[in-house]
Specification:
The protein has about 775 residues and is α/β, with parallel strands linked by helices. The protein folds into three domains: about 1-220, Growth Hormone, Chain: A, CATH 1.20.1250; about 290-530, Vaccinia Virus protein VP39 (Rossmann fold, 3-Layer(aba) Sandwich); about 555-775, Growth Hormone, Chain: A (Up-down Bundle), CATH 1.20.1250. The chain is about 60% helix and about 10% strand. The chain has 28 helices and twelve strands. It has helices spanning about 1-5, 10-15, 25-50, 55-75, 90-110, 120-140, 145-170, 175-195, 200-220, 235-240, 325-330, 345-350, 355, 375-380, 410-420, 435-450, 455-460, 490-500, 520, 525-530, 555-575, 585-620, 620-645, 650-680, 685-705, 705-715, 720-745, 750-775, and strands at about 250-255, 260-265, 270-275, 280-285, 315-320, 335-340, 365-370, 385-390, 420-430, 465, 480-485, 505-510. The strands form two sheets. An eight-stranded mixed beta sheet has the order 7-6-5-8-9-11-10-12, with helices on both faces. The two termini are about 30 Å apart.
Length: about 775
């Protein structure tokens, strides 16, 4: 079949012989899908540099809308008779896509202001629109081969996931976007060579992309320039430091990783360097040569207070950063320090300046763990005298964070794990940005102790909370101390003395200052206590709702905006799809297929995002988690799609109903069994946890890949309206991903997973009805 197509090159792109499709088009679709996924993840890195991470989510949602817009345009570009298609539109789209990537990188790098996300989002939309257009045209032209095409599409996405992890380590995000132009140019060359159309233009775009990439890697001409930015978010403190003439600041080292970008900034202060993660979340790298007397001044800092309470012989530092907290532990006499750091770029940056910081992460007293702190604590058998968390807040958007997950180290389950790993007389200490965050940490700790059988007055005897008074609420650093046992009188006196010496305001000290928490001592429940001030949401967070830093009630404005946009687009495309038209396949059959596309669009994303969140704790290494879950899911779905292509159309609906039933049943089962199963598997070796993650993902991933390509095969009788179904599915996918976030914030990811399961079970009933109305 392929040989007959190659003998007539124009058939490579035209679909003139209906079911025939040539391998060059499959390869091109594979490459285009890979560029789309790489661009999607890279944008989270770019937007995390410029905006608060909530806006990174909003921008990502807006860009994904481009796929639906492009597919909707494909509805009008698809000829009613495939035999009339020349295929030039596919090649023109690829050439335009190849040019759009470097142009998008250049424009975003040159935008002078970060006051609004809109200009960046508009620029980022263009490549997605072209990807959506190319994909929709391809599927519309070869709808009967949708199983094969969808398998190529998903396999390309899996390649994108694996590739981006290495690319974001080797080069900056802007260079990655330029590289995508070369990849799209390669796809254009493959099609142009096979079809003998526009070959010089395709070669030119490939050479342009490759040359520009080489120039940028050598010169950094297109890149992040914080020195010239205006109107940046307040939490991007690196920009303020660099633009402050009195600091004389400049970037001296940059390290990239899929997790976040790290910049080391020197100022006129030779005793310390700033280290910023994605332009914010600054930490300090101290000049240290091993002589503790030279850093003895740190004993007078707020951060040192927890080290004065008792034994610190075995200390666990969560969020090692550039090593300052490790220096504090050494100064306190710690002999065994376990330092956990999630970002490998931070470790590379710190080691790069080992002569300056005394090789702080590689000292004999220090065991460095590069990975997720929560997973480490759940797995370790060690007990610690002090577990120390100092301003553990990355402000970074991880590759898997389209679901806007914040942090699993501040949930009730995490606090329980910390308490379980304290030695007798040990302390858990959390130093937070503000009184609100400190209060939420304290309330979470009280809830954990109450769940363990203590009354709230008994639980309060374990806790102390101190605050730095400041006019600026963001500067009110708090120190929360939680004892394994009730705090002793001597410990309380040490805290009171330290607070008095440093000018701290006690928010709670047992038997000394108890006013803010007095209602709990007098019999109020935590729920009643929290209801007394509804201005902020300080309720304990949970693994199912890990939004510790979401302190305002309701949805964050960017999430609300994303929900409105996604709902509006979905409604508009739904109305357009149902607009009366003469369809050869039957009016009511078309209506059923439209509902089918909407159900699997939203359902797929609800299941996928919830599954990612449930499994990411299991592996403990963010990069490995992304590669395993987001790599396995499209590969498994692609396998399901490929298998479905072999099924005769007469049996397609019945088998789709079985696949949908399987997805719904497994998703509902996962809702109940995954949390305890993950906790049970945490003790297994890494290789077994990887295999378990792959198996659990594939179990639902294979059937997830069956309904959509089957839908397009069934819709082939409607000719030019196939692209409209693609667009509708994309719009409801965006709506589903946004709903996953909304539902997780309101009720938890478990309910998002249950809703996705319910949509697939609805599909079972719909498919049963379609068997009676489709001609």
């Amino acid at each position: 079949m392929v040989k007959s197509v190659i003998r007539n090159p124009k058939l490579v792109l035209s679909g003139a012989e209906g079911s025939e499709i040539a391998s060059p088009l499959v390869v091109a679709l594979f490459l285009v899908s890979a560029t789309g996924l790489i661009f999607e993840i890279t944008l989270t890195r770019l937007f995390s540099l410029y905006f608060h991470y909530h806006f990174a989510f909003l921008a990502l949602s807006l860009t994904v809308l481009g796929l639906s817009v492009g597919a909707a345009l494909g509805r009008f570009a698809t000829p009613s008779d495939p035999k009339s298609a020349s295929g030039k539109d596919l090649l023109i789209t690829l050439v335009a896509l190849s040019v759009s990537f470097p142009l998008a990188a250049t424009v975003m790098a040159r935008l002078p202001s970060a006051a609004s996300v809109l200009p960046y989002a508009v620029v980022a939309l263009i490549p997605f629109v072209l990807i959506g257009l190319f994909t929709a045209l391809t599927f519309a032209r070869f709808a009967t081969q949708s199983g094969l095409l969808y398998a190529a599409d998903l396999t390309g996405a899996a390649l994108g996931v694996v590739s981006i992890l290495g690319l974001l380590t080797l080069m900056d995000a802007f260079s990655v976007v330029i590289l995508l132009g070369a990849m799209a140019g390669l796809a254009a060359v493959i099609l142009a060579f096979s079809s003998r159309l526009y070959l010089p233009s395709a070669l030119l775009t490939l050479l342009f992309g490759a040359s520009l990439l080489g120039v940028n890697l050598a010169s950094g001409w297109i890149g992040y320039s914080p020195e010239r930015l205006t109107s940046v978010p307040r939490d991007k403190t690196m920009v303020a430091v660099l633009q402050d003439p009195s600091q004389g600041a400049h970037i001296v080292y940059t390290a990239n990783s899929p997790f976040a970008r790290v910049d080391v900034v020197e100022t006129r202060d030779s005793e310390a360097k700033f280290v910023f993660t994605d332009g914010g979340a600054g930490s300090y790298m101290l000049r240290f040569d091993g002589d503790l007397e030279k850093v003895a001044y740190l004993r007078g800092s707020v951060e040192f207070i927890p080290f004065t309470l008792g034994s610190t012989e075995r200390t666990l530092v969560i969020g090692a950063g550039a090593g300052k907290d490790v220096v504090l532990a050494l100064l306190a006499g710690a002999e065994e320090i376990t330092a956990v750091e999630v970002n490998p770029a931070m470790v590379r940056a710190t080691r790069h300046f080992s002569e300056y910081n005394g090789g702080i992460l590689d000292r004999p007293e220090v065991e460095l763990v590069v990975g997720d702190a929560r997973t480490f604590v759940e797995r370790t058998l060690n007990k610690y005298d002090l577990i120390y968390l100092n301003l553990v807040y990355t402000q970074a958007t991880e590759p898997a964070n389209q679901a806007l997950v914040e942090n699993y180290i501040f949930t009730r389950q995490a606090f329980r794990a910390y308490l379980d790993h304290l030695a007798p007389g040990g302390h858990l200490t959390i130093i937070s940005h503000s009184a609100l965050e400190g209060s939420r940490a304290a309330i979470t700790a009280l809830q954990v102790l109450a769940n363990g059988g203590k009354s709230l007055p008994q639980a309060l005897a374990h806790m102390a909370l101190l605050m730095v008074p400041a006019d600026d609420p963001t500067q009110r650093t708090t120190v929360m101390v939680l004892g394994k046992e009730p705090l002793q009188d001597a410990e309380i006196r040490v805290l009171a003395t330290g607070a008095n010496r440093l000018g701290l305001q006690p928010l709670f000290l047992p038997d000394m200052f108890e006013l803010p928490f007095a209602p709990l001592l007098q019999g109020s429940t935590l729920e009643e206590f929290l209801a007394g001030d509804p201005t902020y949401d300080l309720s304990p967070t949970d693994d199912d709702q890990p939004y510790f830093f979401k302190l305002d009630p309701g949805l964050p404005p960017p999430v609300r905006q994303a929900l409105v946009i996604a709902a509006a687009l979905s409604a508009a495309l739904l109305l357009l799809s149902l607009w009366p038209t003469g369809t050869a396949g039957g009016r009511w059959g078309w209506v059923g297929l439209v509902i089918y596309a909407a159900l699997i669009g939203a359902g797929f994303m609800l299941v996928e995002i919830s599954l990612i969140q449930r499994l990411q704790l299991l592996l403990g290494y963010p990069t490995l988690s992304v590669a395993t879950v987001l790599g396995t899911l499209p590969l498994a779905s692609g396998l399901g799609s490929l298998v479905s292509q072999r099924w005769p159309e007469a049996r397609l609906l019945r088998r789709v109903s079985l696949a949908a039933l399987w997805v719904g049943a497994v998703a509902l089962a996962y809702r109940a069994v995954l949390p305890p199963l993950v906790r049970w598997l945490l003790g297994a070796p890494l290789a077994w946890r990887v295999l378990a993650t792959i198996g659990l993902t594939a179990l639902v991933g294979i059937p997830l890949g069956i309904p959509f390509p089957s839908l397009l095969r069934l819709a082939a009788r409607y000719r030019q309206r196939v692209a409209l179904l693609w667009a509708l599915n994309g719009a409801f996918s965006v709506l589903g991903s946004t709903l996953a976030v909304v539902m997780s914030m309101a009720w938890g990811f478990s309910w998002a997973l249950a809703t996705g399961a319910g949509l697939y079970l609805l599909l079972v009933a719909l498919v049963w009805r379609l068997t009676r109305v489709l001609p």
